[in-house]
Specification:
Elements lengths: L1 H28 L9 E10 L2 E8 L3 E6 L6 E5 L2 H11 L16 E7 L2 E5 L3 H19 L1 E10 L15 E6 L4 E6 L4 E2 L7 E2 L2 E8 L4 E9 L9 E7 L2 E5 L14 E8 L1
Antiparallel strand pairs: 1-2, 1-5, 2-3, 3-4, 5-6, 7-8, 7-16, 8-9, 9-12, 10-11, 12-13, 13-14, 14-15, 15-16
Length: 269
């Protein structure tokens, strides 16, 4: 009898100890409030058109958008203050991520790193909207500016290309914040005769980017030379000062026929 009582008491003590350890562990994983310095990470893994993307926003406003599995894509910049303020407000009331009762958002999760520790957070529709907007803004801002064609890739490898198979490279590709773009081939464009002299590109158009799917769509509006074989719908990838466009063709300028090119790489000027 004494042995049986001792055995039961031992089990109860062990159960209390385990419960206490679990409570301590859960408490240790709870994110602290009123954080001064933090880094929030939002990861999308294959849920949106096969895109694997990692967004990091720091309390000081530094933002990084990168390919989750490598260095194929990376954008660095600063998040607008309004985004940082919204994220800080969310962290004050953020909950621990709990095992979902139903299938979670496909391939997406959220964590915060602070004080040398990392905490998984429960996502809300509001914070997801803020983070997606921050991601979209960072990618769109990274596209802005002036680029020059630095490389191209054939759709199918060729042993040799004749001079007539190669077209002029694009000397200047400009994306403006108002949604317009312009293209100038090497030795192309013109200057107005009036004063001040104004440079005129070969043609202009409008563009739209969908960072979430990694797609771009462009349409030509006018120009001195408007190519008949322009094809502006494709995908884009940005890696710091390099912009890669796939399935986009800005038109043939001097080649006898459109070159068999499926990928164009531009470097920031």
């Amino acid at each position: 009898m004494k042995m049986a009582i001792a055995f039961v008491v031992g089990i109860l003590i062990a159960m209390v100890g385990c419960s206490s350890a679990l409570l301590d562990s859960a408490a240790a994983q709870s994110p602290p409030r009123d954080l001064k310095e933090w880094n929030i990470d939002y990861v999308i893994g294959g849920g949106f058109a096969g895109i694997d993307r990692h967004l990091t926003v720091a309390s000081d406003g530094v933002i990084v958008v990168a390919d989750r599995f490598g260095a194929a894509e990376r954008v660095e910049g600063r998040a607008p203050r309004e985004f940082v303020t919204k994220i800080a407000a969310f962290l004050k009331v953020a909950r621990d991520a709990k095992p979902p009762k139903s299938p979670p958002m496909p391939g997406a999760w959220l964590t915060v790193r602070t004080g040398g520790r990392e905490y998984s957070l429960e996502m809300t529709p509001e914070i997801v909207a803020v983070l997606r907007e921050a991601m979209d803004t960072a990618v769109k801002q990274a596209v802005l500016g002036t680029w020059w064609e630095s490389a191209w890739k054939l759709c199918k490898p060729a042993a040799q290309l004749a001079p007539s198979d190669v077209d002029l490279s694009i000397e200047t590709l400009v994306f403006e914040a108002d949604g317009s773009f312009s293209v100038t081939w090497r030795n192309g464009g013109a200057h107005t005769t009036g004063i001040p002299h104004v440079f005129v590109p070969d043609y202009r158009g409008r563009y739209n980017i969908s960072p979430e799917s990694g797609s771009i769509e462009m349409h030509v509006e006018n120009g001195m030379f408007v190519p008949s074989d322009f094809s502006g719908r494709g995908s884009l990838r940005i890696n710091m000062n390099q912009l890669t466009l796939r399935k986009v063709w800005f038109g043939t300028k001097q080649a006898k026929k459109r070159p068999d090119i499926c990928e164009l790489t531009f470097t920031r000027k």
